[in-house]
Amino acid sequence: MHNHDSAVVKPGEKIAIVGNPNVGKSVIFALLTGRYATVSNYPGTTVTVTTGSYKLGGKDVQVFDTPGVNTLIPMSEDEVVTRDILLKESVRLVVQVVDAKNLNRGLQITMQLAEMGLPFIVVLNMWDEAHSRGIGVNTEKLAAAIGTTVIPTVGVEKKGIKELRESLSEKRYSSLSISYGSLIEDGVERLESLLPDSRISRRSIALMLLAGDESLKPWLKDHLTPSEINKIELICQDVQGKFYEPLGYVINHTRLKRSGKVTDEVFSKYQKGGNTISVNLGRWAMHPVWGIPVLLIVLFLMYEFVGVFGAQTLVGLLENGLFGNYINPFMKFLTVVFIPDSFFRDLLVGEYGIITMALTYSMAIILPVVGTFFIAFGILEDSGYLPRLAIMVHKIFKLMGLHGKAVLPMVLGLGCDTMATLTARVMETRKEKIVVTLLLALGVPCSAQLGVILGMLGGVSFTATLLWVSIVILVIFLVGFLASKVIKGESSDFVFDIPPLRVPVLSNIVFKTLSRIEWYLKEAVPLFIVGTLILFTLDKIGMLNIIEKVASPVVVGFLGLPQKATGAFLVGFLRRDYGAAGLFALAEAGQLNPNQVVVSLVTITLFVPCVANLLVMVKERGFATAIGMVAFIFPFAFLVGGVLNYILNMLGVEL
Fold first, then answer.
1. CA distance linking residue 365 with residue 266, whole number of Å
2. What's the pLDDT score for residue 82?
3. CATH topology of domain 1-267
4. Which of 327, 440, 461, 545 would you label with 65, given CA atoms 20 to 30 Å apart?
């Protein structure tokens, strides 16, 4: 039935990495495939799947990093995609990544993989975290119980990866089998006789159908006649009629009992060897009272590292030193010597020149700020603090009528709003998805924009930073609260796994930072050049002055900013961080006082999302909904900025 020849790698064969959410699949994937990976939508879906390549038997094998799932009987689009990869792709081997401290949950997928008849190995990741909690797993007993290879790993420290690589050439088929009772087994047998051959066993497909898997209908229509499909539906109805509970519940309950038995056999408890200070700090970080000073300390350290060191020290070295004293003067000299036409000289080194503006902004002003932010964000990710932050603010999000998982897209939005908007699909209701998308577009600055903002605030005061943070958070809360009242719908429960606090691994921080800087150089810098060309063109045809004059009553009169700030808002739609960079340059030139800095930054933070985010909003929420959000956000941002300007002036506040 199966080809057990592990030495031969057939053309088109793939390796699929599967597992529950938050078990370290992506870390394992990165360690196997290296830095170069492709992220794209799985055909026919809006779910993104990361692919890379691994050298096996002298040949490149494609590796899938599948979406995290809790079951292979799909309940969400992510789970459908993972199941379809196993069903439709030529999978040579499945690598199941399991959280070592949550073995029982991982075994639900293990049993389904065994039933599919696919070769797979189990990676017990986060081995150190299980140990710190006083949990031991007898890997030899576990391997015997499930009938396949079990490899303990600590992905973030690269422990166990060598053993994993050595196991990838083997094709181990699990000997694990489960009986669901005579009534269900009879139904499985009757269904198997009607089902076509596929890349997974007929038994597993039969169990999916009995469990009520509606997502298999398109596949059945492609492989069976309407008469055969009708017979399948009648069998499922017949078997269901013999049970009081839904068959999906009965099948899942049987698997739970079996996984619980296996867990009891292989688990052992002992005196915790974890660091008491780390455990206590982990509890304090999400405590409703003590978590607040921990958060303030984190924000202050981030402010000092990004806002002071990155935006002042490093920007000073690059902008005033490297670019100001060497690169820009040298390029101006070359253009004078070799380019007689003033138009093309201005295009390169003029006020809106590609070198003097686009490259200077992107490389000398934003790159050092964004780079230090990427380092800080990577430390927060690897330390395990971000999940604690999510738990700590969970009650606030509940007041906005949101599912607790809404915290995750909001936190991810600090990396990239566009990708975070895609993750809003984890919300279960239309209302939750719309509210999360709105808040991401309105008030969550992406990493590049946030880096520039912290850089500007670092040149003012910590008080200005707290004021900006307070206003943005207050606006997000008020808009979210009101949106939850206006948009009809319900919220659901929130379950979240908290990893222990740990010391970040330097190599992981370096890897993440370099990958994100590579993204910045490839994706952001070209758009800076496009934005500069737009400003250059508008300036040459006289439109920039016209726009500045038309916008003057709002920008100058209402916001209290100089006319030059209009250009920053104009290109802010192309990229939010480019708009922020324009404000940064104005502040450095002394054209913005501290009050104007805060007003301008509040406005640009609440400004319309970048064009890439808008396109994703249209794709995810629909054209009318996305345009409706933008129609609200645009005037609302200026309204908040104008009110802030009025209050500061009325109270005579000088920041």
1. 55
2. 87
3. Rossmann fold (3.40.50)
4. 440
pLDDT in tens, 431-447: 888 888 888 888 887 76
Give the residue carrying structure tokens 């707290």.
Answer: 466
> 437-471: buried (b, 16+ CB within 10 Å) or exposed (e) per residue?
bbbbbbbbbbbbbbbbbbbbbbbbeeebbebbeeb
Average pLDDT value for residue range 558-584: 75
Distances (CA, A) of 309 to 37, 441, 517, 577, 601: 32, 29, 18, 19, 20
75-85 pLDDT tens trace:
667 788 888 88
**Nearest-angstrom CA–CA distance, 455 and 94:** 45
pLDDT of 227-278, one tens digit each? Answer: 998 999 999 999 988 888 888 888 888 888 888 888 888 887 554 444 554 5
Residue pair 155/173 in contact by the 8 Å Cβ criterion: no
Domain ranges in the chain? 1-267, 291-651
Question: Is 512 within 8 Å of 381 (Cβ atoms)?
Answer: yes
- Comparing C-alpha atoms, which of 40, 222, 94, 497 is closest to residue 83? 94
Region 285-314 average pLDDT: 75
Mean pLDDT of the 495-503 span: 62
Instruction: Check if the beta carbon of residue 18 is closer than 8 Å to that of residue 69.
Output: yes
Confidence at residue 21, expressed as pLDDT on a 0 to 100 scale: 78
Q: To which residue do tokens 């159908």 refer?
A: 209
pLDDT for res 615: 66
Residue 317 neighbours by CB distance under 10 Å: 13
Q: Which residue would you say has higher pLDDT here, 55 or 290?
A: 55
211 contacts 79 by C-beta, under 8 angstroms: no
Packing angle between helix 594-605 and helix 576-588, nearest 10 degrees?
Answer: 180
CA atoms within 13 A on the CB side of 527: 20
Find tokens 């919300």 and name the residue: 427
Cα distances (Å, whole numbers) of residue 100 to 110, 382, 521: 13, 18, 37
pLDDT bracket for residue 282 (50, 70, 90)? low
Q: Is the pLDDT higher at 264 or at 620? A: 264
**Residue 640 amino acid letter:** V
The C-alpha angle with vertex 595 and arms to 594 and 601, in degrees rounded to 5, equals 90
Type of residue numbered 587: A
* Of 116, 122, 176, 170, the residue nearest 146 (C-alpha): 176
Distance CA 630, CA 609 (A): 8
Q: Is residue 484 within 8 Å of 342, Cβ to Cβ?
A: no
DSSP one-letter string for 316-373: IIIIIIIIIIIIHHHHHHHHHHH---HHHHHHHHSTT-IIIIIIIIIIIIIHHHHHHH
- Is residue 151 within a helix (H) or strand (E), and if so which, with residue range? strand 150-152
Q: Which residue type occupies 603?
A: T
Lookup: tokens for 404 = 């607790």
The token pair that represents 532 in the structure block: 């500069």
- Strand-pair partners of 39: 50
Q: What secondary structure letter does DSSP report for 574?
A: T
Are 591 and 629 contacting, i.e. CB atoms less than 8 angstroms apart? Answer: no
Angle of helix 226-240 versus helix 182-192 axis, rounded to 10: 180
For 290-312, what is the mean pLDDT?
Answer: 76
CA distances from 494 to 394, 395, 426, 427, 432 (A): 9, 11, 11, 10, 13
How far apart are alpha carbons 321 and 159 in whole angstroms?
43
- Residue 189 is predicted with a pLDDT of 92
